[in-house]
Amino acid sequence: MNILIIGAGFAGSVVARELAEAGHQILAVDRREHIAGNAFDVKDQHGILIHQYGPHIFHTNSERIFNYLSKYTEWYQYEHRVRGVVDGKEYPFPINRDTLNQLYDLDLTEEQASEYFEKVREPKEKVLTSEDVVLNSVGRDLYEKFFLNYTKKQWGLDPSKLKAGVAARIPTRTNTDDRYFTDTYQAMPLHGYTVMFENILDHPNIKIQLSTEFTDILKSNLIFDHIVYTGPIDAFYEFKFGHLPYRSLRFEHEHLSSQEWYQSVGTVNYPNNYEYTRITEFKHLTGQMHSSTSIVREYPTADGDPYYPIPRDENEVLFKKYKALADAEERVTFVGRLAEYRYYNMDQVVGAALNAADKILVRK
Ligand code: FAD
Ligand code: UDP
C-alpha cells in the first residue's frame, strides 16, 4: 500500500516505521521544517541542546514502550525534579512531607504528614473537577499557594472549570520523594529526541517531506490507499462543527553566557508571580556539560500553535462530534494528542501509535 502520514511527531513517526517494516510505502509530511513534532530538540547557537517547544521528559511504566524506543536510542538516566516558588521561597513540588515541614516550619513524620493532610483536606463526595482533586487531597491553603494561580495562568480557566484529570497528574506524598515522576522508566534519549526520530524514520520505505501542508498533498495527483492524520481533528474537517479549543504557549528561550548554572533543578514553577508558568534549564535534563547555560520560560496563550487539548466536558462533547466522523472513515486513521484530543504524554502517544498501526495492518 501507499500510505500518507500527516505529521512527523511521535504518532506519525511510530506509525510510519511500523507500516514500513510491514512492507508498505510511506510518505510522511510535516508542515514544520523539522521532524519530531513538539519533542524536537536542537543545539542552540551556543552549542547547548534545547527543547524548542518546552521541556520534554520521558517517563513510562510500560516495559513494551520503553523497549520499543530503545531500538532507536540509548538513554541518559534522568529523574526530573521541580520546585514551586511561594512567597519568594522554593519548595519541593509535588507537595511532599518536606514541603509541609519547610512551608509551615514543622517537623512531621510520615504518619503525622498523613494526619496533617487528613485534617486540612476538604473531602468531596464526587471528585469531578481539578479544584475537587486538590481540595480533596491537600485542602485550601496548599491549593491556593501551589495550584490555583498556576492553573489559571496555564489554562486561562479556574480549576473548577477543568476536568479532574488535569490536576490529578500531580500526586501528593507523605514521604520525602521529590521526584516529579515515579515511573519505572525515566530517561532521556542519549543524543536527543531529534536523533531518536531520525533513527525511527530511517527506513528505505519511508520518504519524508518537510515544510509541507496536508492540503498541498491533497492538491497533488498522488494517490494513497490510506492516510494517517496526526494534526488537530477539527482542522481536518475544516472546523465544520466549530473550533476545538487548544491551549498554546509562547516559549522565551534565553542563553546565559556568564554563568554555568541558573537554578538548582530542571524546572522551577512560579504559580503566583510573573506571566510565565515555569523556567526550565536544559542542562539538568540532558546531562550536557557546558560553561554557560540555556533556559526557557513558558507563557501560556489562547492563540498560537495548538499544544494542549483542554479537558472540559463541553470540549469533549464537540470532540465526540468530530470523532463520530473520524470513526466512520475507512481510509483515514486519526492518532496522537491533537487528532484524538487527549492530554497524552509521549509514552501514551507511542502506545496509541503502535495500536493504530496494528489496526491498519489487520484491516488491510
Ligand atoms: P505532535 O508532536 O504535535 O506532532 C504533530 C505534527 O503534525 C506536528 O509536527 C505538526 O506540525 C504536524 N501537523 C499538524 N497538522 C498538519 C498539517 N495540516 N499538515 C502538515 N503537518 C501537520 N510529554 C511527556 O511525556 N513528557 C513531557 O515532559 C512532556 N512535556 C511537554 C511539554 C510541553 C510544553 C508540551 C506542549 C507537551 C509536552 N509533552 C510531554 C507532550 C508531548 O509533546 C506529546 O505527547 C507528543 O509530542 C505528541 O505527539 P504527536 O505526534 O501526537 O503530536
Ligand atoms: N499544576 C499546578 N501547579 C504546579 C504544577 C502543575 O497547579 O506547580 C497543575 C496545572 O493545572 C497543570 C497541571 O497541574 O496544568 C499538570 O501539570 P504538569 O506539570 O503535568 O503539566 P505539563 O507538564 O503537561 O504542562
TrEMBL record:
Cofactor(s) the protein needs: FAD
Molecular function GO terms recorded: flavin adenine dinucleotide binding; UDP-galactopyranose mutase activity
InterPro entries linked: UDP-GALP_mutase, UDP-GalPyranose_mutase_C
Keyword Isomerase annotated: yes
GO CC annotation terms, alphabetical: cytosol
Segment forming the signal sequence: none
Entry superkingdom: Bacteria
Domain UDP-galactopyranose mutase C-terminal: start-end pairs: 145-343
Keywords: FAD, Flavoprotein, Isomerase
Any Pfam family the entry gives: NAD_binding_8
Annotated EC: 5.4.99.9
Family listed: Belongs to the UDP-galactopyranose/dTDP-fucopyranose mutase family.
Protein name: UDP-galactopyranose mutase
